[in-house]
Design a protein that fits this description.
Chain A is an all-alpha fold and 327 residues long. Chain A is built from 16 helices and no strands. Chain A has a single domain, classed as MetI-like (MetI-like fold). In chain B, strand 8 and strand 9 form a beta hairpin. The longest helix of chain B is centred in the first third of the chain and has 25 residues. Chain B has 2 domains: 165 residues, D-Maltodextrin-Binding Protein, domain 2 (3-Layer(aba) Sandwich), CATH 3.40.190; 196 residues, Periplasmic binding protein-like II (D-Maltodextrin-Binding Protein, domain 2). Classes of the chains: A mainly alpha (327), B alpha+beta (429). Chains A and B meet through helix 2 and helix 3 of A and helix 1, helix 3 and helix 17 of B.
Chain lengths: 327, 429
């Protein structure tokens, strides 16, 4: 009793936060609740359904409706996909494309971010607005415009190549007449153009994020390094990169996720789901599930495989980043 | 940004609530299963002429069913598969629907359409419908759709350029190449023929013209005809137009029929494949072209016109409809000979009744004459619901031709691979 009376002051000081804590703790969850409900209903539930569907043989809309039973096939959809040699092509396309695009997007985005940091205010605003326009263009419209640019008869690129001096064009490419050239004919060229479109769409986000990171780096650090005689290359790798490592980490993870599931740009450039040699996982899943005759089970299984690959890739990467930070 | 993030869940909740409410509102149709309303889905955007025609059909139909209101909804062609899938999944569909005749078997296999075999045999006018078209709407011997109108492809050409180059519409394959080369020489910067390398239907005319077959059913198992010398001859000719004769550009390997037709409409090509119904679209791209165009049937190798695929539309009853008697009555009014002829004509198609095609006055029409000739000699693609997978999903024929045009495979390799893939799909259990 005595100790308690003696200690009221400190006890109260200790108790106040303790008493407040339940209220403070519950509120964020209450506020989050609508969001969680939406995420649950619109994201987790369909996700669970896709996983469930991948274990059934589903090839009729009437099954989705519940008019027909769902025959359980276990892992048959997965074994069928993994045994198909076409899956290897698709997987190779997806992984190579994602790797190339993440690398190019990161490099270009970082360079533009660094540039924006060095520019004066007016010029920075101008360049940033131009860059943001590319980002603000919806994927669908942007890609349609790119498709026109590469049109085989009236496209800008065809016109430019036709403007090359005939001799030069002949020496470089072995042809001087580019009218009617099939820009999307070979898978390699198709992927090159697709990479151009996707990188064009996604580097602005990287640039702006890197710029935001750079603004938080104290300029004294850079000045000090420069005074000590470090060139721009060294400054970047010794000062900027280590300080911005978390930013780069997040950006690489996001880019990986985005570039693994590119769909719109490919669908538009390829003109639908006809160009099978250039399939990647997302369009493969869509084509299997929804092209007639529908195979919802197989399509779901491909989607699950894509999700698993993404989880593994990003999981490994996040662990790597976290570990580096601990060191 | 932050404000939007905070608003997003609210918007989503409101939106989903709205969808739920809308869904509830829409399900009141079951009680209305009385005959006060008949829902009809038509494909396309619905021109004034079509609306007026359908109003006339409704008036005629209501003479027998005065209490029924016919509600026509237009579905864009490209939207149709999604709309059908949604209707089938949700259980809220039309009573009567139009659908492309290449899709009827596929939707019949999905149990979307009602079996009308019995009703059809009791309907006298159906006896005159072209037999190929009737067969094309069957699955396992049962009738799931009734042909409404039909059309075939021929070749559109520039009469002025042909005159300048001094060539006549070609009658065989050799003349086709010669005419294309002559025009190309006279008109630098144009293509002799806009070849849709990524489409299958125009190619089938060359395949059938050479005496080849896509696939034949031999005692319950499908055998692809692509490895025969006739088929390989057709593939060789079709792809040689790009790779050897160079009367079409390399880009043609990726062109579909619309891409190719646009080359013709915009004055970039002397010839293009097209159906009679596409005349309107070509004119829309270039109203002037009407003065300088003509058509001729797709030639065979030997001087006779090649057979063509009979495209068009079927009318079907929706399997989930509770008013099938009423729907069939509407169908027989819509498809009676008088209405069929007036509607097909207004669209640039042909009626499906053999007597009407034969007696129609097409011989003096500078566009329709070639199509009318070809209508006498039509063929259909393999009659199995699995065909749609070969044709649309795996695009076996298109890929075969494109790979040869792109120089990725030889004719022998490409045809062998395509035949194997086709057989594995058609014979899958």
């Amino acid at each position: 009793m005595t100790t308690l009376t003696e200690d009221t002051g400190t006890a109260a000081a200790r108790e106040t936060p303790a008493r407040r804590r339940p209220r403070v703790d519950r509120l964020p969850y209450l506020l989050l609740l609508p969001c969680l409900v939406v995420v649950g209903v619109l994201l987790l539930w369909p996700l669970g359904q896709v996983v469930a569907m991948s274990f059934y043989k589903l090839d009729s809309v009437r099954q989705l409706r519940g008019d027909r039973e769902w025959p359980w096939v276990g892992l048959a959809n997965y074994t069928q996909i993994l045994a198909d040699p076409f899956f290897r092509t698709v997987l190779r396309n997806t992984v190579l494309f994602a790797a190339a695009n993440v690398a190019l997007t990161m490099i270009l985005g970082t360079l533009v971010g660094l540039l924006l940091n060095r520019l004066g205010r007016k010029m920075a605003t101008f360049v940033a607005s131009c860059v943001m326009l590319a980002w603000a263009t919806p994927a669908l419209t942007g890609t349609i415009v790119w498709k026109w640019i590469f049109d085989d008869t009236s496209g800008l690129v065809t016109w430019l190549f036709n403007k090359l001096p005939d001799g030069l064009s002949q020496a470089l490419f072995g042809q001087s007449d580019w009218t009617g050239y099939g820009w999307f004919n070979s898978p390699l060229l198709f992927f090159a153009i697709l990479t151009l479109v996707v990188v064009w769409h996604s580097f602005p986000f990287i640039a702006v994020s890197v710029l935001a990171g750079l603004k938080s780096v104290p300029s004294e650090l850079h000045e000090a390094a420069r005074v000590d005689g470090a060139g721009p290359w060294k400054v970047f790798w010794k000062i900027t990169f280590p300080l911005l490592r978390p930013v780069f980490g997040i950006l690489v993870v996001l880019s990986t996720i985005w570039d693994f599931k590119v769909f719109t740009q490919q669908f538009v450039l390829a003109g639908g789901t006809q160009d099978r040699p250039t399939f990647m996982l997302s369009i493969y899943s869509y084509a299997e599930a929804f092209s007639p005759p529908p195979k919802y089970g197989v399509g779901s299984a491909i989607a699950v495989i894509l999700t698993l690959i993404l989880l593994v890739v990003t999981g490994l990467y996040v662990r790597m980043v976290l570990r580096q930070e601990d060191e | 940004m932050n404000r939007w993030k905070r608003l997003a869940p609210v918007t989503a909740v409101v939106a989903s609530a709205a969808m739920v409410l809308a869904g509830c509102g829409g399900s009141g149709d079951d009680e209305a299963a009385d005959n006060s309303k008949l829902t009809v889905w038509m494909m396309g955007e619905g021109s004034d002429a079509q609306t007026k025609f359908l109003d006339g059909v409704e008036t005629e139909f209501r003479q027998k069913h005065p209490d029924t209101d016919v509600v026509v909804q237009y579905i864009p062609w490209l939207e149709a598969p999604k709309k059908f899938q949604a209707a089938l999944a949700g259980g809220e569909g039309p009573d009567v629907t139009e659908l492309g005749n290449t899709e009827t078997q596929g939707w019949a296999a999905q149990e979307a359409l009602a079996d009308v075999s019995g009703r059809m045999s009791g309907w006298a006018e159906s006896k005159d419908i072209l037999p190929d078209l009737v067969k094309n709407a069957q699955l396992d011997g049962k009738q799931y759709g009734v042909p409404w109108y039909a059309g075939v492809r021929a070749i559109y050409y520039r009469t002025d350029w042909f005159a300048e180059a001094g060539v006549q519409p070609p009658k065989n394959w050799e003349e086709l190449v010669a005419a294309a080369k002559a025009v190309q020489a006279k008109k630098p910067g144009t293509y002799g023929i806009a070849l849709p390398g990524n489409s299958e239907l125009p190619f089938y005319s060359f395949l059938w013209g050479a005496g080849g077959e896509i696939a034949t059913n031999q005692g319950g198992s499908w055998k692809s005809g692509y490895t025969t010398p006739e088929a390989q001859k057709a593939v060789k000719f079709w792809t040689d137009m790009v790779t050897v004769h160079k009367i079409a550009p390399p880009a043609a390997a990726g062109w579909n029929e619309i891409d190719a037709r646009t080359q013709f409409a915009t004055g970039k090509a002397a010839m293009a494949f097209g159906g009679s119904w596409q005349a309107g679209a070509i004119k829309k791209d270039n109203p002037e072209i009407e003065k300088v165009w003509g058509t001729f049937p797709i030639p065979g190798p030997d001087g006779r016109p090649a057979p063509a695929f009979a495209g068009g539309s079927d009318i079907a009853l929706w399997q989930d409809s509770k008013k099938q008697d009423l729907a069939w009555d509407y169908l027989t009014v819509l498809l009676n000979k008088k209405n069929a002829q007036s509607f097909a004509g207004s669209l640039g198609f042909f009626p499906v009744y053999s007597d009407l095609v034969a007696s129609g006055d097409y011989a003096n029409d500078k566009l329709m004459a070639a199509f009318a000739t070809t209508m006498q000699n039509t063929k259909v693609t393999p009659l199995t619901p699995k065909w749609v997978e070969v044709s649309r999903t795996k695009t076996v024929t298109q890929a075969m031709n494109s790979s040869v045009m792109k120089g990725q495979k030889t004719v022998e390799q490409a045809t062998t691979d395509a035949a194997a893939e086709m057989e594995s799909i058609l014979n899958a259990k």
